[in-house]
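Researcher: We're teaching a course module on how sequence relates to structure. For the next exercise, students receive a sequence and then see the predicted structure as C-alpha cells, so they can try to spot secondary structure elements on their own. Here is the exercise chain.
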Amino acid sequence: MEEDNKAFHQAKASISEQVEVIEALMRIYQLGKWKNEDGNAILHKLPTCLDLRVTINDLTNSVTKELSNSNVFGS
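Model: And here is the predicted structure for the students to work with:
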C-alpha cells in the first residue's frame, strides 16, 4: 500500500512538471501573438509559431497518453 502511494505521488509530480512546461509554452505562444509596434505578431514568423504549436500539441498528447496508459492513475 505504501509503495502504491509512493508511486502515485512520484507519477503525480512527473505529470505536474510536464503540465507546467506545457502551460509555460502556451503563455509564451500567447505573448508571441501580441502585436509589436509594426503591427506584426512577435512569433508570427514561420516556422517559429508553427514549431511552438506543434511542440505544445506533441507534449499535450504525450501527457494524455501517459495518463491513459498509467496503472498508477487507474483507467
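Model: If you want an answer key for the exercise: Residues 2-32 form the longest helix (31 residues). The helical segments are 2-32, 48-69.
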